Amino acid sequence: MSNIAAAIITIGDELLIGQTIDTNSAWIAQRLNAMGIDVLRRVAVGDDRNAITDALNSELASASLIIITGGLGPTADDITKPLLNEYFGGNMVVNEAVLEHLKNLFIKRHRPFLERNLKQAEVPDNCIVLHNQFGTAPGMWFNKEDKVVISLPGVPFEMASIMEQEALPRLKQTFFSDALLHRSIVTAGEGESFIAEAIQDIEEALPAHIKLAYLPGAGMVKLRLTGRGSDADKLVAELEVQQQAIASRLGNIVFALEDIPLQEIIGKWLTANKATLGLAESCTGGYISHHITQLAGASNYFNGGIVCYQDELKEKILGVKRETLEQYDAVSEQTVTEMVQGALRVLHVDYAFAITGLLGPASPQDKSPVGTIWMAVADKTTVKTNVFHFRYDRERNKEMAVSMGMLMILKFLNQSKPITPNP
Amino acid sequence: MSNIAAAIITIGDELLIGQTIDTNSAWIAQRLNAMGIDVLRRVAVGDDRNAITDALNSELASASLIIITGGLGPTADDITKPLLNEYFGGNMVVNEAVLEHLKNLFIKRHRPFLERNLKQAEVPDNCIVLHNQFGTAPGMWFNKEDKVVISLPGVPFEMASIMEQEALPRLKQTFFSDALLHRSIVTAGEGESFIAEAIQDIEEALPAHIKLAYLPGAGMVKLRLTGRGSDADKLVAELEVQQQAIASRLGNIVFALEDIPLQEIIGKWLTANKATLGLAESCTGGYISHHITQLAGASNYFNGGIVCYQDELKEKILGVKRETLEQYDAVSEQTVTEMVQGALRVLHVDYAFAITGLLGPASPQDKSPVGTIWMAVADKTTVKTNVFHFRYDRERNKEMAVSMGMLMILKFLNQSKPITPNP
Q1: Do B389 and B276 share a structural domain?
Q2: Nearest CB neighbour to B76, from listed A29, A203, A359
Q3: Are residues B224 and B369 in the same domain?
Q4: What is the DSSP letter of B135?
Q5: Pseudo-torsion of CA B193, B195, B198, B202, nearest 10°?
Q6: Residues A293, A405 within the same domain
Q7: Quick one: average pLDDT of B194-210?
């Protein structure tokens, strides 16, 4: 039984001149995948009638489902709604439900309802309107023979809410498909080649309906097993046998058996062990704190952090000694050690992590080479330090530092309770 | 004189299941645009021979330049290189320069050079090799009749370095084109509809070779004027006349006349005024500090921040009074005022900003509604506070809080030196 084939069309000049990064497509693809709908292609085109029509024609030739995002706002550069109306041979009519919703939104936002806003309440009369609780542009669902075309606004959280509440439930009813399931193995510390070599026999012996993909990230490689089949329970069992085989083979480079971010693995450990964490960040400027607090409920284990971008604050708040800074420099094992000890004390936590380094670009007062990053993690009895030398640009060095920092925290936490599966 | 038409093809199953967000396309589109090359379409396909071949065929039909990213790694799921070799009728040969570079990389990384890595040194003999200083997979430049196809690895910083150093200079030589220039007006505080109404006459009177686009973001709308023409100096003058006309009309909702991030506008102001900034973040968990320190040179004006995720730290480090927290709650005007005053003192800065709120989801101990965010900005003599009520999810609320927070800082700084153009 073959899966439903879908295509995603994103519309907007801003995508083609690179002013906007398309996060919608990835989000939509994840949701469709979880339902067993395969995205075969994603296409981005500009705010141009011919380009949009061509994309619709060519994608409809091979896909049963098209999701369109973008091109629905109230301003002059938005042309998608009238185009879809013509494409599907409808007439534009004011939709009373949409009109009432619009007027309510304008009242809530203390904005006057202008003449041109009335147009936003017009929809083709041959589509099903998908309610947009957060915004003004409604989603639209068109049926064309046995195919479905869904048009959604480009604002990510509006698009997501219409998909969750309106489009996905309706898609489940409309299409039927095989189960498509994933299992992941998150590794850190070795590259793709090493891993591929280590598990070559397992990979070669995979049954035809299970595929393995390598997804390299900052300092990590995620392995993803994807299986498809009509019997979901049987598929889960098969996937987990392969997942265990790979994890056992890779041993202590395995950090998790689910594809969740490092901050979530850390959060789960701290919650399970009723322990608290605090941070002292210099070069990463609060970016690790941001990651840790991305999760709701982080306040159960995260006390806070000190962003000590200037040496003065390392001294004044964390109690790093002036002699240490002068003798060894701010980017040194001695400084990071005093930082982490200060963080433990000042933030009143069970575990602390500290980081100081030079992300780049080079400046005349640098004493260490650009890319040198010192890190320390500590509890009341032990301090571990590590130094990295990244060779990328400022932004990439920061991403690497965050990733390596969280891995270092996780390794330290895991010392007492390893999560590595036994061989 | 028409511009060069390009298409971007991104390859990888991870793009179609949504595990990876495609940042490469936007980056490439920006760079091509700056040269006057128009990106007409972006297409993402999976690691599948037929899909890649179909995409090449269809994009080559309308574009003169194709940039391909992804599908070049050493593992079994990478099939692009042999496919391109066949497509362009070449033979795979070991390239000595690539081989030497690979061996050096492996030595640097203290990794054994494995049998399967030898394959990475093979390239089609009919392409120009584009050196990849940061990684193992070289870029490849193919000529097909008067068209160019460039294949690059998918790892963003490797792709970017090959583009900057190898591909872009060669593209400049290969293609000639009209100037394509942009001018921006960054606004905050009003929606698209309001702005469109306010500048309707200016927009309608724009000459045919100048287009206006509305790019809404978190709490902001960016307006972008795009012009094309053979005389770059004349075009600049024309664009700037329109930019000034729009900016004057929109008055004090204009925050900048260039499309740079808020943190950069803040950084420029602080640098020009030799002033320092510090932050006290509760709900945003270091995310504003991260934004401020994204810029190289931020240490010239940013001292640091306190991420006081727990009330205990608001008290202990920032000196917020326990009675204030108990009587008014952590999310209150009183608390945020004491936070900002504490930050001024503890971080030893000219300007401080503080934020405390509930990003969601709801929890039983919340005293204010989810989405309530208090902010304060202060110098030695004045404290300004503001409250926001966001109605989105946790992530979007955080983005909005960062955006609104930086706007609030900027407004405060601008009070003495407005950047709004005169009418």
Answers
A1: yes
A2: A203
A3: no
A4: S
A5: -110
A6: yes
A7: 95
Largest distance between two CA atoms of chain A: 78
CA-based nearest residue in chain B for residue A18: B26
The pLDDT of A117-142, averaged and rounded, is 91
Q: How many domains are there within chain A?
A: 3
A286 CB burial (10 A radius; 0-12, 13-18, 19+)? buried
Distance (Å, whole) CA B91 – CA B124: 5
Same domain as B270, residue B153: no
Q: Which long-range contacts (CB under 8 A, 24 or more apart) does B311-314 make?
A: B312/A303, B312/A348, B313/A303, B313/A304, B313/A347, B313/A348, B314/B280, B314/B282, B314/B338, B314/B339, B314/B342, B314/B356
The CATH number assigned to the domain holding A149 equals: 3.40.980.10
Could you tell me the pTM of the whole model?
Answer: 0.80
Inter-chain residue contact B16 with A29, CB threshold 8 Å: yes
Q: A11, A31, A145, A30: which is closest to A89 by C-alpha?
A: A145
Residue B152's domain spans which residues?
4-174
Burial A194-225 (b: 16+ CB within 10 A, else e): bbbbbbeeebeebeeebbbbbbbbbbbbbbbb
Please name the residue of chain A whose CA is at the shortest distance from the CA of residue B42: A44
Q: Which of B123, B144, B174 is the last residue of a domain?
A: B174
Cis ω on the peptide bond leading into residue A207 (within 30° of 0)? no
Tell me, yes or no, whether B24 and B134 share the same domain.
yes
Selecting from B19, B313, B394 the residue whose C-beta is nearest the C-beta of A304 gives B313
Q: Is residue B122, in this structure, part of any structural domain at all?
A: yes
Residue A248 burial (CB < 10 Å; 0-12/13-18/19+)?
A: middle
Residues B228-285: pLDDT tens digits? 888 989 999 999 999 999 999 999 889 889 988 899 999 999 999 999 999 999 999 9
Name the burial class of residue B329, with classes exposed (0-12), middle (13-18) and buried (19+) by CB atoms within 10 angstroms of its CB: middle
Nearest to B18 by CA among A99, A8, A347: A8
pLDDT of A383 strictly over 90: yes
Over the stretch A149-178, which tens digit does the pLDDT of each residue have? 999 999 888 999 999 999 998 998 888 667
**How far is Cα B52 from Cα B149, in angstroms, rounded to an integer?**
13
Q: Which amino acid is at B47?
A: D
Q: List the CATH number of the domain containing A324.
A: 3.90.950.20
Query: Quick check: helix, strand or coil at residue B257?
Result: coil
Tell me the three state secondary structure of residue B351: strand
Q: Which amino acid is at A213?
A: A
Which tokens go with A219?
């300092």
* In contact, B292 and B263? CB cutoff 8 Å: yes
State how far the Cα of B22 lies from the Cα of A27, in Å rounded to an integer.
11
Q: Is residue A159 part of a domain?
A: yes
**Residues B338-368 pLDDT 10s:** 999 999 999 999 999 999 999 988 877 788 8
Contact B285 A281 (CB under 8 A): no
CB contact under 8 A, B42 and A116: no
Judge whether B238 lies within some domain. Answer: yes
Q: Determine how many CB atoms are found less than 10 A away from the CB of residue B364.
A: 4
Q: Name the packing angle between helices A49-62 and A80-87 (round to 10°).
A: 50
* Partner residues linked to A223 by β-bridges: A185, A214
pLDDT category at A1 given cuts 50, 70, 90 is: very low
